[in-house]
Amino acid sequence: MVSHGSSPSLLEALSSDFLACKICLEQLQAPKTLPCLHTYCQDCLGQLADGSHIRCPECRETVPVPPEGVAAFKTNFFVNGLLDLVKARACGDLRAGKPACALCPLVGGTSAGGPATARCLDCADDLCQACADGHRCTRQTHTHRVVDLVGYRAGWYDEEARERQAAQCPQHPGEALRFLCQPCSQLLCRECRLDPHLDHPCLPLAEAVRARRPGLEELLAGVDSNLVELEAARRMEKEALARLREQAARVGTQVEEAAEGVLRALLAQKQEVLGQLRAHVEAAEEAARERLAELEGREQVARAAAAFARRVLSLGREAEILSLEGAIAQRLRQLQGCPWAPGPAPCLLPQLELHPGLLDKNCHLLQLSFEEQQPQKDGGKDGPGTQGGEESQSRREDAPKTERQGGVQPQARDGAQTPKEEKAQTTREDRVQTLEENRAQIPHEDGGPQPHRGGRPNKKKKFKGRLKSISREPSPALGPNPDGSGLLPRPIFSCSFPTRMPGDKRSPRITGLCPFGPREILVADEQNRALKCFSLNGDYKGTVPVPEGCSPCSVAALQSAVAFSAGARLYLISPDGEVQWRRALSLSQASHAVAALPSGDRVAVSVAGHVEVYNMEGSLATRFIPGGKASRGLRALVFLTTSPQGHFVGSDWQQNSVVICDGLGQVVGEYKGPGLHGCQPGSVSVDKKGYIFLTLREVNKVVILDPKGSLLGDFLTAYHGLEKPRVTTMVDGRYLVVSLSNGTIHVFRVRSPDS
User: Fold this and answer.
1) Sorted alphabetically, which CDD domains does this protein's record hold (predicted)?
2) What's the pLDDT tens digit per position in 154-200?
3) pLDDT-based confidence at residue 12 (cuts at 50, 70, 90)
4) Where along the chain do the CATH 3.30.40.10 domains lie?
5) What angle, rounded to 10 degrees, do the helices at 267-315 and 205-259 form?
6) pLDDT band at 100; cut points 50, 70, 90
């Protein structure tokens, strides 16, 4: 079996980010290890705890918090030992920037100690030259290893210092852990050995490690074997997806060629079939991406656990290995016992079928059929157009000439299906049922099967011309892509980070987002009365001071200033918090949406059914009512943004629609269809091509509309980690930033269709 990880060196462990907390990004303090083998600071886990459970920030596994609190999680003696080594190299008593001798104050020397030139690896003390010479001559310390301090701090003696480290008993300071109580599986010092473990069989640590190491190594080998299977399954999934795309491109070409000679009256049917093809490919790609994400997530979890166990076994001291042995063994058994996907789920490949009645306006001339794709074995290349295609072609050639023109069967005159059609329909239903059953067997991180989406049991789905989306609560029929490519922008997850800072007194309530400088965002935290600045990687950059007593609601960044609404006022402040001007707004509106114009020198705000635009001096530049005074009813734009084309896009809660208007207030597009799922439209953002991203908080979705307001489909759903999305913004025209109700921010890169 090929090993999936070599034993890490001590230098790699000390120089990598292994000793950094993934929550606070600082060096670990009081490291505690979760059952998933990820280690964090005790204080960070305390802030992360949600009642009686904690969700691991790395593998997203939910673990229960012990009744005694996060302090009861297992202490990571292995990490503690490495931290002691790092701290000893980097720290110490300093005088004028140089380490001081630790023994001089004890023998009547200066209170601060002389300059240290050596270090005793056994005592872990820095020594001056005189104390070092005496240390080598005394009866009790003549066997101690005294080394040059410069070489020690350069890392020359790390391995030797590591061998002389001893884990200290937490109950008896100064006593090293020396024994393992076999019945209690507890590490003991000499004091602990006397009571209450006096009558228990105990082993020295070295002997206990020799007895238990083979079991851990066997479990580790099993996880390595599972990693091989995961890599193979992931590779097969990608190959299946590539074959699907290749065949979809071929079928798309066939559809185009078949439709070229048809009369104009039949072009609508051509668009309908292309829409079916696009919907099927997008749905299949979505399912494939989910399976790939599942496989990659499991691979990362297994690889991280294996790497941790390998580090402990390679670098850990006996006490450290035994203290973690139970947790490691339990985790490795859990991973080893988890069922692994044997291969990609069956995929329905589209096939073009032409109807003989080409001149019959009431007949669908183009139809798609889907054949189940078999997993490839032994490096076979039975892709589209080979074995499966030859069998399909053979079946078409064997069909009667009156029934196979174009590869399609004629429909019965009275609307009923022919026996041959009923058989084909049953075959398609069985294929879909098999596909859903196979998907249900893909394991979760907890080892259980994946539930059916939406919590509903699996049911047979019938394909009658149109292919429905596979996502939960799919949006209604999708419109064609404006550029004619048939492909829509897709999300690629970039990162996720919390917005709660140490000085916050309350949980964040994000009410506004906007771009702020290169690859940075400004967050309006209404609950903590702050404007916080973050990079797209989650690095905290500080705050923009706001006037005392102001709770920022909506925010927009201009060329050299920041505009925000608070209460019934509009503020323009400099980046250092100086108020340049303020304007009173209508008291009849609870909140006022703010947006910066593409030029960066004007700000728009929604006020009582109309939009006001102010320049940098605070003068009212223009004021308009969306749709004009003759429009039906007033509008209440709760969310507002601008597009690169100079249009205003807003969520109208009065008309329950998304409205797009030009700079004069003329409505150029509006959507109020069933794609809103009966929800009030939420935050809106626009990318560099004019696509509109609309948040639907109640159904945990972000849907996408074209520049004219036609619904194109779902962009983000709950499967992308959305839990009550609140506000969004677009950064650099290609990063969609989404804030959740709990104060977390997700960043997605918008991948364009031509990318």
Assistant:
1) Bbox1_TRIM56_C-V, Bbox2_TRIM56_C-V, RING-HC_TRIM56_C-V
2) 666 666 666 666 677 777 877 778 888 888 888 888 888 877 788 88
3) low
4) 10-90
5) 170
6) confident
| 657-708 pLDDT tens trace | 999 999 888 899 999 888 888 888 999 999 988 999 999 998 999 999 999 8
Three-class SS state of 152: helix
Q: How confident is the model at residue 352 (pLDDT cuts 50, 70, 90)?
A: confident
| pLDDT of 447 | 39
Residue 548 token pair: 């005392």
Task: State which fold the 10-90 domain adopts.
Answer: Herpes Virus-1 (3.30.40)
Q: Judge whether 728 and 737 are in contact, CB under 8 Å.
A: yes
> Which token pair is 269?
């049917």
- DSSP single-letter state for residue 385: T
CB 48 within 8 A of CB 54: yes
Amino acid at the residue 62: T
Starting at the edge strand found earlier in the chain, the sheet holding 510-515 runs 510-515, 520-525, 530-535, 540-544
Those residues with Cβ within 8 angstroms of residue 297's Cβ, 6 or more apart along the chain or in another chain = 59, 60, 445
pLDDT at 513: 96
CA 682 → CA 480, 613, 657, 686, 725, distances in Å? 24, 22, 10, 13, 9
Q: What is the pLDDT of residue 14?
A: 55
pLDDT digit string, tens, across residues 419-434: 444 444 444 445 444 4
Report which of 216, 213, 188, 210 is spatially closest to residue 201, judged by C-alpha positions: 188
What contacts 527, CB < 8 A, 6 or more positions away?
Answer: 506, 507, 508, 509, 551
Cα separation, 651 vs 726, in Å, equals 13
Burial class of 8 by CB neighbour count within 10 A (0 to 12, 13 to 18, 19+): middle
CATH number listed for the domain at residues 507-751: 2.120.10.30
C-alpha distances in Å from residue 641, one per residue of 146, 479, 588, 614: 68, 23, 21, 15
Task: Calculate the alpha carbon distances from 323 to 38, 62, 78 in Å.
Answer: 15, 22, 9
CATH 2.120.10.30: which residues of the chain?
507-751
594 CB contacts (<8 Å, ≥6 apart)? 512, 554, 555, 556, 563, 564, 565, 570, 603, 604, 605, 640
What value does the mean pLDDT of the chain take? 77
Q: Which residue in this structure is represented by tokens 């969004």?
A: 728
CA distance 292 to 384: 22
Q: CA angle, corner 386, sides to 385 and 390, nearest 5?
A: 85
